[in-house]
Amino acid sequence: MEGRDGCSIFSFTELHRQLRDHDGAILAIDLHHIEHACIAMAFFLHALFAILLDKMQPKPKDYIHMGHFLAALAFAQELLLFHFHSTDHMDLEGQYHWLLQEVVLICLVTTLLSIWMPKSFMVSYIRSLGVILQGLWLVVMGFMLWTPSLAPKGCSLRKDHHAHDMVTKCRDQESLDRGRALVNILFSCILIGVMVFGVGLYLILNRALGGCELREDGVEGDCQMEDKQAFVCEKRFAPIDLEDL
């Protein structure tokens, strides 16, 4: 529900401005706003259809795979639009976008794997970490690209001659190379932080929910969280699917 509302608000903020010229043509300088709105709309439709499928619960239960497929389409569209973004990919903003594409690709691949392995805990867990990393990187982009005091040495936030927006530009190639290196280091630090968080949370969950598992014949056996999404442990929890939570 929150994701659907967030996508709606984001789409409105991108499309509320004047996007057409006097002759009715879409302004080239505002194309990136429409691209951002298309990305948000894809995730809005995924959230909306996922809610409808959960309410209707059609038989057989393959609607879960349909939800994964819709999410994969949304990530694929996001990757496509960021790869062929209408904004400049040559400066610092382009470096942020290139790294963002790698994170989106992880989300896309793990979502596609979820269609094939819907009960795989690790696939769902890695996809969740990918979404967290993507959200963190988008927030970092917002602060680093449009906060003048955070611009790298030799770069500054100024008006772009080809767009209405303020962008971070570097005065020479040396400053640009230094800025790109700092962006790579920043991304690496955030990635390491997500890795530590992911492994730590996994160990906590494994310790809290791990233990023994009831096999189909009712005999207790060893339980590994990555083997199946069935937390049938010492507390005798029933097998569950993440999509049912």
Describe this structure as you would to a colleague.
It is found in: Membrane. The protein has 245 residues and is mainly α. It has one domain (2-209). It is built from 6 helices and 4 strands; from the N terminus they run H-H-H-H-H-E-E-H-E-E. It has helices at 2-15, 31-56, 63-83, 92-116, 121-146, 173-209, and strands at residues 155-159, 166-170, 212-214, 220-222. The strands form 2 sheets. A two-stranded antiparallel sheet has the order 1-2. It has a two-stranded antiparallel ribbon with strand order 3-4. The radius of gyration is 22 Å and the shape is globular. The model is unreliable at 1-8, 10-16, 212-220 and 225-240 (pLDDT under 50).
Write the layout of secondary structure elements.
Blueprint: H1 2-15, H2 31-56, H3 63-83, H4 92-116, H5 121-146, E1 155-159, E2 166-170, H6 173-209, E3 212-214, E4 220-222
Antiparallel strand pairs: 1-2, 3-4
Helix pairs in contact: 1-2, 2-3, 3-4, 4-5, 4-6, 5-6
Q: Could you give a short account of the major beta sheet?
A: 2 strands, antiparallel
Distance between the termini: 14 Å
Strand runs, count: 4
How many individual domains? 1
Tally of helical segments: 6
What fraction strand? 5-15%
Low-confidence stretches: 1-8, 10-16, 212-220, 225-240
Task: Provide mean pLDDT, rounded.
Answer: 76
Shape: globular
Biggest β-sheet: strands ordered side by side in the sheet: 1-2
Quaternary structure classification: single chain
Q: What gyration radius follows from the Cα positions, in whole Å?
A: 22 Å
How helix-rich are the residues, as a percent range? Answer: 55-70%
Q: Determine the structural class based on helices, strands and strand pairing.
A: mainly alpha
In N-to-C order, the SSE pattern is HHHHHEEHEE
InterPro entries: DUF716
Keywords: Membrane, Transmembrane, Transmembrane helix
Pfam family, one: DUF716
Family: Belongs to the TMEM45 family.
